[in-house]
Amino acid sequence: MSMSGYRPWVVWSVGLFAYLIGVMNRTSFGVAGLDAADRFGAAPAVLSGFLVLQLLVYALLQIPTGILLDRFGARTLVVVGALVMASGQLLLALAETLPIAIAARVLVGAGDALTFISVLSVVNAWFPPRTVPVMTQLTGLLGQGGQILSALPFAALLHQGGWTPAFVSAAGLGVAAAIAVAAVLRNRPAGAPTPVSATSWRAVSDSLKASWSEPGTRLGLWTHTGTQFAGTVFALMWGVPYLVVGQGMSSAAAGGILTLLVLVGVVAGPLFGEFAARHPTRRSWLVIGVIMATAVAWTAVLLTPAPAPRWLIVVLVVVLAAGGPASMIGFDYARTFNPGHRQGTAVGIVNIGGFTASLLVTLGVGAVLGLAGGYTPDSFRAAWVVQYAVWGIALAGVIIARRRARRKLADEGFPVRPLREVFAERRRETVKS
């Protein structure tokens, strides 16, 4: 194969490496929670606030990141993001007071916010449209390997070498990612047309309004909102306490359940991507199915007296694992419904949905636990109910946005036939044959 054939994979691999290191930086503080409590004298409630702060910074920066992506391109944003995260990790390595640690995590969250949607734009530019849904899924899934870097080599260095060497090493990997991206990654193939980006505040405002007014963008937003948050909240914050206290599992068993969450996501991702590529007009049914299946699985667990049968917990986790791959379909909507010059803005709008929902549900579960008496099975049962409001709102948003998106497609000469008509036609053809 010629070098031109290898080039997209080389560019994508470098972008994926930067995202992988970004995920490692994002999750490194969680691995160091007990060490942070000793170093800064912080209570558990204060440490949990670091996750909320990280999600808040990430969510608030998504739309500005999308606008910057359309203006400056992926290469610049990924380099800046890697360097900002590296500076945050270096500051955390040297921090001895809680305010400095908080400032460091803000920098990590800000750099993280610049990375993912920028790498997705590289996928959109370098791969054929038929391949993009699968490559998008692979990017998201393989990037989560950064959690393994946090859990294994980073944690080993932290416990053997100490706080400062561990976080300095993480900062060094961030600098290495920035250098690799600057040397290899390009926004688009040579000769590809450069999208005309907004050059004034008025043009930026018009681009943002146009992206938001596009029904497909809102369909992507509600898709991401309804599918991403449940697995994120479970994996990053409340899953292990619930499994240990609410379901009576050991810490080791709870860790095994979270491993299952990752493994199922790895299997589901490519399958969802292939479905989206083969059936682009039926993507919403997959999204609706995942939202409803998640709500049904949680209902079954919450209505079952604790401890629930282990098989039922496994079913819940398998369904939760489908939420991550399903949320990636939201980015596919942003890609297919928006022109190239404002896809970054559209993807930023989509990406804000799930992380905002994760932030609100994380806070909501914590608030209900506090009001209901702390970590008890009954308190957890009440706390998880806050998820239903988000599912209801997101499901309504998906249905309404889908109707408007299909109406626009019909006006443009590309009507989407209802499934009932398709099935009825197939039945008639079967009878005739």
UniProtKB/TrEMBL annotation:
<feature type="domain" description="Major facilitator superfamily (MFS) profile">
    <location>
        <begin position="11"/>
        <end position="406"/>
    </location>
</feature>
<feature type="transmembrane region" description="Helical">
    <location>
        <begin position="311"/>
        <end position="334"/>
    </location>
</feature>
<dbReference type="GO" id="GO:0005886">
    <property type="term" value="C:plasma membrane"/>
</dbReference>
<feature type="transmembrane region" description="Helical">
    <location>
        <begin position="163"/>
        <end position="185"/>
    </location>
</feature>
<keyword id="KW-1003">Cell membrane</keyword>
<feature type="transmembrane region" description="Helical">
    <location>
        <begin position="73"/>
        <end position="94"/>
    </location>
</feature>
<feature type="transmembrane region" description="Helical">
    <location>
        <begin position="100"/>
        <end position="126"/>
    </location>
</feature>
<dbReference type="Pfam" id="PF07690">
    <property type="entry name" value="MFS_1"/>
</dbReference>
<dbReference type="InterPro" id="IPR020846">
    <property type="entry name" value="MFS_dom"/>
</dbReference>
<feature type="transmembrane region" description="Helical">
    <location>
        <begin position="252"/>
        <end position="273"/>
    </location>
</feature>
<dbReference type="InterPro" id="IPR011701">
    <property type="entry name" value="MFS"/>
</dbReference>
<dbReference type="InterPro" id="IPR036259">
    <property type="entry name" value="MFS_trans_sf"/>
</dbReference>
<feature type="transmembrane region" description="Helical">
    <location>
        <begin position="346"/>
        <end position="370"/>
    </location>
</feature>
<protein>
    <submittedName>
        <fullName>MFS transporter</fullName>
    </submittedName>
</protein>
<dbReference type="InterPro" id="IPR050189">
    <property type="entry name" value="MFS_Efflux_Transporters"/>
</dbReference>
<keyword id="KW-0812">Transmembrane</keyword>
<feature type="transmembrane region" description="Helical">
    <location>
        <begin position="219"/>
        <end position="240"/>
    </location>
</feature>
<keyword id="KW-1133">Transmembrane helix</keyword>
<feature type="transmembrane region" description="Helical">
    <location>
        <begin position="40"/>
        <end position="61"/>
    </location>
</feature>
<dbReference type="GO" id="GO:0022857">
    <property type="term" value="F:transmembrane transporter activity"/>
</dbReference>
<feature type="transmembrane region" description="Helical">
    <location>
        <begin position="382"/>
        <end position="401"/>
    </location>
</feature>
<keyword id="KW-0472">Membrane</keyword>
<feature type="transmembrane region" description="Helical">
    <location>
        <begin position="285"/>
        <end position="305"/>
    </location>
</feature>
